[in-house]
Amino acid sequence: MPELPEVETVRRGLSPTMENATIAKLETRRADLRFPFPDAFGERVSGRRIIGLARRAKYLLIDLDDGMTVIAHLGMSGSFRIEAGDEDDLPGDFHHPRSKDGKHDHVLFHLERDGVASRVIYNDPRRFGFMHLWARSQLDLYPAFAGLGPEPTGNLLDAGYLATRFENRAQPLKGMLLDQTVIAGLGNIYVCEALWRAGLSPLRKAGTLVSKAGKPRPELVALTDHIRQVIADAIVAGGSSLRDHIQTDGSLGYFQHSFSVYDREGQACARQGCCGTIERITQSGRSSFFCALCQK
Fold it and tell me: For 116-141, what is each residue's pLDDT tens digit?
């Protein structure tokens, strides 16, 4: 499913069209996606002005002028597209097929701003995405947000913080980094990439990166920097665009073409001077890609 950089790409792509626009009508074409829509969803959202778009972990937040927030998750195949006037075509070059079938257009935001009408359409063939409506002042009580760790893009994530979470832990690094209570929104793809950049095995015990005094070892300082940088690089590149994900203008991101380790099983390690081969193992039901020669 889309990871944090993909959702951030969607947020940035939607913002120019949605922020400060009035939702003239919210149209839902079925009663549910993964979960039922909120009661009277269309009626409660129609007529409201969108004051901003935000993101928490892998969730898109659409803030309304009445203090409510639409919480949207893209699931496995969800995507947004923007249409204006009578234009139905999506601009951009397509490198992977995606759904333009109207039967998968499940939610339509009919917008108006400065007398100009537009539509933002949520399309989801597999219907694993969802939308909820929640009071903005109580977002911390939203079940999926309770206990979330700091964002990998924020200043709260540093080596000292990770040392407090890793200390005396025998759990493999991969599992610790995927724990959303440790770091919010960090997913499988970018954990693999960050561990490769840091030269650390996904099998290494997390506690080995912390000194006996509870301080971060140099390897943990480097890993923290690589986590932040790999996410920043992916956001700049427009997200990985794996499978069904596209940017909101219809084009695909290109970060997937610069993956160093993810989904490269059997290929030569890209690290300069390394003659290893990328391996794939399964950890907690997820594929881990790494080079056993240079990741220790």
Answer: 999 999 999 999 999 999 999 999 99
pLDDT band at 213 (very low <50, low <70, confident <90, very high): very high
Catalytic residue among 11, 58, 81, 264: 58
Distance CA 71, CA 61 (A): 5
Is residue 167 part of the annotated active site? The answer reads no
Q: Is 286 a catalytic residue?
A: yes
- Positive or negative torsion for Cα 92, 232, 162, 224: positive
Q: Is the pTM of this model over 0.70?
A: yes
Please tell us whether the domain made up of 159-291 is placed in CATH 3.40.50.80: no
- How far from each other are the two terminal CA atoms of the chain, in whole angstroms? 28
112 is catalytic: no
Active-site annotation holds for 2:
yes
Q: Which of 3, 8, 193, 219 is catalytic?
A: 3
For the 4-145 domain, the top CATH level (class) is alpha beta
Domain with CATH 3.20.190.10 in the chain: 4-145
